[in-house]
């Protein structure tokens, strides 16, 4: 698409926003309810499109995307009126003859750049927050999942006006052209490397930016953990989307006293949860398939599920013993490969993880050392004695720190992300105090010192 056309769409959305059409409660709630109806009616076709892109089981897509989007919509619909209210705040002594409050106001024109691994939730979840906050939006889905991208475009085009919400498809060139426009906010989900490019582009316009990135998210299994349950939940988290998940457990840190029993439990869990290849997604493209094979060729494979598929398919694999100097531990895996390391003291784990880039998620199984982990390791968010579930609570802000991202969303946090809270002080009809005005003689300064 030519840059002139992008500019035309951008200006149309700008004009629509400044017409105040998007700002009323009535308009916002109508759009959210309409969006919910559209998602429910198109759930099956959306799941089918993902399957066409990388053979992800349609049941898994429904659970991990469609159901989560509907839940987010329900939460926003049920709470929008409360979120839109002015928020009273305390007034200090200096301004005691008045009232103070925060007024949530939409940011305006927004760009949402999605990812291929969860093509719907990475654009629709921030879009829900964008709608709730009273904004317009241009959506750029990932070109790596073309069927899903096309499904998003069709759904939005058929149900929303172009000057309100529109979808622009394309590759890197289109993303670059969009990032050259002065959006009020840019929301990006993807790799840390591309996130840096997005942030640099936003700096030119002083645009707000939210980056949802990734990192090597650890699963720590302590000696007091329930081993069978821990193994099942780790395999569930790693198996989601065949490990192509920014909050998947990237590797396991197992206490030396339970490492052998955990390894056996992990093997059992893989057989139990994935009895057939049809329950596992393929790798999205040849580039990522070759990258993962390169990792496997340089590692010691402890366990691998048998497989017969050839369509860019890598079976769930355990690497043991893992090593920080080997390829699997040098970068985020983003695939069904699970390295396992051992530890003897929790302070060693804390020190080692903190020496590396901040993970987006952290999972801990056990009880005895959780206070040390919670206080001692920096990470975006996490779950204790399970995996992924912190993401499923709309009341918990979701986001990273440093290399794993900046900013957060979900529920009210998403509403705040796409809003500016104006700080308002409203003066009452009271007598004015002369000592606040110059010239400030000794008597006036005496009152000012007492007041402050």
Tally of domains: 2
Structural class: alpha/beta
Examine the secondary-structure arrangement and name the CATH architecture of the largest domain.
3-Layer(aba) Sandwich
CATH topology of the largest domain: Aldehyde Dehydrogenase, Chain A, domain 1
Task: List the quaternary state of the chains.
Answer: single chain
Query: CATH-wise, what's the superfamily of the largest domain?
Result: Aldehyde Dehydrogenase, Chain A, domain 1
Give the number of DSSP strands.
Answer: 16
Question: Given this structure, which CATH class of the largest domain is correct?
Answer: Alpha Beta
Radius of gyration: 25 Å
- The best one-word shape is globular
How is the biggest beta sheet arranged? 7 strands, mixed
User: Percent helix among the residues?
Assistant: 40-55%
Number of helical elements: 15
* Low-pLDDT residue spans: none
The chain-level mean pLDDT equals 95
Account of the protein in words:
The protein has 452 residues and is α/β, with parallel strands linked by helices. The protein folds into two domains: 3-213 and 402-424, 3-Layer(aba) Sandwich (Aldehyde Dehydrogenase, Chain A, domain 1); 218-392, Aldehyde Dehydrogenase, Chain A, domain 2, CATH 3.40.309.10. It is built from 15 helices and 16 strands. The strands form three sheets. A seven-stranded mixed sheet has the order 10-11-12-9-8-13-14. Helix 3 packs across helix 4 and helix 3 packs antiparallel against helix 6 (146-159).
